[in-house]
Amino acid sequence: MKVEPTPGHDTIRQLHQSAAACLMVLSVVLFMAGRIWVQGTVSDIAEKKTFEEHGHCKAERMLGLFVIDIANADTGSTKLIEALPVALEEALGRVALPVTISVDGKEKSLLTDGRTVRELLAEQNIELGKYDRVCPAPSEPLKTGLLVRIVRVDKKTVISTTPIKAQTIFKRDSSLVRGQSKVISQGADGVMEKSYIVYTRDGVETLRKLVSRKVAVQPQKRVMAIGTRASRSSRSTRGYTGEGRMMVMQATGYDPGPGSCGRYADGYTSIGLKAGYGVVAVDPNVIPMRSRLYIEGYGYATAGDVGGAIKGRRIDLGFDTRREALNFGRRKVKVYIIE
Length: 339
Description:
Blueprint: H1 7-41, E1 46-51, E2 57-63, E3 66-69, H2 83-92, E4 97-103, E5 106-112, H3 117-123, E6 133-135, E7 147-151, E8 153-164, E9 168-177, E10 181-185, E11 190-201, E12 204-217, E13 222-229, E14 245-254, H4 258-261, E15 279-281, E16 292-295, E17 299-305, E18 314-318, H5 322-328, E19 330-337
Parallel strand pairs: 4-7, 9-13, 14-18, 15-17
Antiparallel strand pairs: 1-2, 2-3, 4-5, 6-7, 8-11, 10-13, 11-12, 14-19, 15-18, 16-17, 16-19
């Protein structure tokens, strides 16, 4: 026998359907309201641990109005549900994180949807050079208030040049009177080329390493002729008949050897002249260097040397041998400055 539904049964079924529809609408409203609220507070997620009487640990993670039990109170297990935040982000949408980034001398604060330093760099279109450094590392997760710093590191090769001083060599020339000299070849300085590897951090040099050096331009020697010929007039004891400023000076004889010039004597004067007869040592403040002189009882000479004890109106007369210097001894002489 077929039983027909009664009007009372239909009414109850309609009430159930209406209640289900209301619950669905209410769920949607609550979900949307919860989503808005959670987006404002999800960055304040906090973890809290409480201890029970028998040493069991119960950990709770608070998210908005919901408290999720992530521990087993019976076993003391504290295994975290790591997938939960990710699932919530996917359901509610990612929450922008406030971070600060420092790059190329500028620092700015911003909101980012990225979750790692690498994602942040990609979001900001920041490209890293071969030697650049990032702190924290690109794989590190972002968190609220994090400072991400990019240090620009550069490595380059720098080439610098320094002069190589030309050497002066002396040649004895019998065509020149003793005390005379002339330049045969001016010569030229050379060039030393040095290669460095230079490292910089944000434009500031931090390391310079020499890797090679070479002579880019060979120096050319300077050649000077030194007179060796004795002149009759050079040893003349007759008075000087020309014009010139005259002064009386205390004279002492000396020779090029170590007896007069010390153990480091090399036979040349301080300006490179061959020491010997016709070259005298003076005080440059009294007689300018390279001045042409005539000295009574000695002859013509060139002011071509200096000495620690030669001060004021003192003069040392050069001789070729130690015996000649000792024979001259010390005496007062008239010195004429010719030119």
